[in-house]
Structures
1.
Amino acid sequence: MEKQETMTIEQSLDVITRMINEAKGKVQRNAFYFLLWGWVVVIANVGVYILSENGYQHPEMIWAITIPAWMVSLWRMYSKRSSPEASTHLGRLSGWIWLGYGISLAVLIAFGSRINYQLNPVVLLMTAIPTFATGAILRFRPLVAGAMTFWVLGIVCFIVSKEMQPLINAGAFVGGYLLPGYLLKNKKDE
Amino acid sequence: MMFKDLDPLLHSQLRLAVMSLLLSLEKADFTFIKEKTQSTAGNLSIQLDKLSEAGYITIEKTFKGKKPLTTCRITKKGIKAFEEYVNNLKQYIQR
C-alpha cells in the first residue's frame, strides 16, 4: 500500500473519505445495560406496587434486586474495559454522561429521606438526560423517544398519588429503556 | 497530477489512511487499523513508527492478558499536520 510519490489528489481524497467512513459508526451500540436495568427497574416497581397493595410492610425491600444488577454491571464494565479495538470521542463522552448520572442518582438515593423519598419523578426526569444524549450520539431515534417518555411520565409522576407512582415508573422504563433497548439489540450495524 | 510540496509524511497512501482513521477516533488498536487499511502487519508497523517519530501519533504498548496490545492515538501536532495537508490539497483543487 506504499505508493508514496504517485498519489493524485483524487487518490488522497479517496483515502481520507474512505477511512473517515470506516471510523464512522464505530460508536458502540450496546443494548445490554438498557435491557438489564430496564427489566430490574420494571420488576422492582411492579413488585413494590403489588406488595404494597397486599399490605406488605416493607415493599421497598424489593429494590435489593438492584444489588446483583450493580454487581453484574460493574463486572461487565471491568471485563470489557480494554476490549474495544477502537473507541470514539462520542462513545467516551456517552460513558462520562452516564457516570455523571450514576453519581447524581447515588446522591439522590443516599439523601432520599431529606425529600421524604419522593424520588420517582426526579429519577425519571434525571434518567431522560443521559438517555436523550445517548440517543443523539448514536443517532438512534427510539432512544430519543424513550427520553421523551421519561420526561412526560416524570411530569405524570408529580401529579398522580404516591401509590400509583411505581406503575408510572415501570411504564416509563418500558418505554424509555426496554423498547429502545430491544430495537437497538435487533438493529444490525450499518 | 503529481505533488511535490505536500507533507511527504502524509502523502503516502497507508500513512494518510492511518491518520484519517485516527482523526475520527479517540484511539484504535493495531489490529483494527490493519484491518481497516487492509495493510500488512510489517508495513503498517514501519509506517506507524514513522508517524510516531514525527510526533503525529502516540503508540502505547500494553498487554491484554498475555497478548501484546498496541494502541495508537493522533496527537495535536498530527491533527495540525493533517489539517495543513488537507488545506494544501484544497489549493491544488482550486488551481
2.
Amino acid sequence: MSVAIPNCGTYTVELDYGATTNAFLLDDPVAGVLDQSVYLLEGSTDFQDVTAFVKQVSISRGRQNRFRDATGQPSTAVIQIEDSDYRFSLVNESSPYWNSGKGRLGFELNSNVRISRNGTYLFTGIITQYSQVIENPNRSVVTINCSDELFALNNFKTPALTAVAQRSDERITAVFDEAGLFTRPGQRDLEQGEANLGTAPIDESTSVLEYLQRVNNSEQGRIFIKADGTFAFDRRLIGELQDLDAVLSDAGGTAIPYSSFQIVNN
Amino acid sequence: MAIVRTFNTIEDVGGIEDTYAAPTPQRTNEFTPSNPSVVNTVNVAIAPPAPTTVDLNTTIEYAQAIAADSVADFGVQETPVVVTLLETLDDAGDLAEYLIRPVPAFWFGNIEIIMNGLSDAQRTVITNLDIGSQVSVTKSFPSPSTPSTVTQIMALEGISHDITPDRHIVTLYTNPARIYTYFILDTDELDDDAKALA
C-alpha cells in the first residue's frame, strides 16, 4: 500500500515478484516446457507494493560534475526495509513472497524495482544485491541495493556489426537494434548527435555499456536511464533555445525555495 | 579567447587497442584531467587502421586545440591524446575546441530542496525534473555585496532523493548550461547572451 508522507506526497515502492517466478528457462523440466502458458519469455511483471514496510529510500542518479565525472554510470537506489514479521526474509518459506517453485524468496537479483511519488517515477531499475541483518532477539532489517538498466548493459556483448560512417545516435541505434535492447516503443530517447563516427571496427569483446561509453567519448554528451526507465542519449551541449523546467530562488513568490547550495568553484 | 587548432601524428605503439579506441590499464583513454578547473590544451585522435603483418605500428593522427591566453595565465593544462571513434580530423578538432576550458568556472551546485516546505505545484515541478532539465537559480546577497542578486541558468547532471517516513530531500547537481531562453519583449534587455529569438 502506498504511503503518504506529510506535506510531501504519496510514495510507492514496488518490487517485481513475477519476472523471476514465471520466466521461461531453456532446458528446465518445468519452466522450459514448450506450448504451456505458465512460463513466459522474460516472465510477466507482478509488482508488489511494499511501501508500508520501507524505512528509508535513497536514490542517486546521474553525476555531480560533468567536468570531473564520467557519464554512463548506472544510477542506484537503496531501499531499507524494517522486516518485523520476516516476510522479506531469505529463509522464511511461509513468506507471501516465497517462490515455492524455486525454493527461495521471489525478490532476488535482477528483479524489477519501481519507486514513485504521486504516480511519477523517481527511479526504475533492478535489484543488484539483497541482504538481511538480524539483531537479537528478533529485529530484521533488509537492505536492497538497486541499479538502473545501464548496469544490465554490462552483461551484453557488443554485437557483430560492420561500422559505417554515421552520427553517434545512429551508431547507438544500430547497436541496440542488433543486440535487441530497448526494442519496445518509447524505450529510447536519442537526441541527434553532433559527433560523426567513422568506420573503426566495433570491438565485439566489450560490453554494450563500454562501447556506448566509447561512443560518448566522441560525443561528450550524456548517457543515462531516465527515472521512468527510458534509455536517453543527449548530444554535447551546444547553444540551444530551451524553456526552463524550474525556477529556484530565495526571493519568495512563486519561485521554488531551496534550503542550501554550494558555489562550486571548479 | 582565440583557440588555435593543429593536426599532428604520433606512432601507434598501442596496437590493436587503439584501432578500437579502447582503454587499457596503462592508458584510460579518457579526457578527464587530474585538475579539471582549467583545460587549455586538448588532444583528440581518430582511431588508426588495424596493424597488419606489413605495418605493425600504424600512425595515430590527432587534432590539438590550444587556448594560448589561458596557457599564458595558467601554464599548460593538457589532456592526454585520447583516441576516439570520430570520422575525420576536423571532427576531432571540433571536439577538442569544445573541451577547452580556458578559465576556472564557478556555479551554483548541489542545491538542496526540502519537499515538505513546498506547495503542491512546486513539488510536482521538482518531481518531474530529470537529468538534462534546465533550471535557473537566483540568490540574493545582502548589502554591500555587489551585485545584490545573481541568477544562473544550468543543466541538471544528477539528482538524488533521500526519503524517510517524515521527509523528502532532493539534491540537484547542476552544471553550467549552454542554452538560451526566449527573449521577452519589454522585459529582457538587448545584448543578453542568455536570450534568443525563436
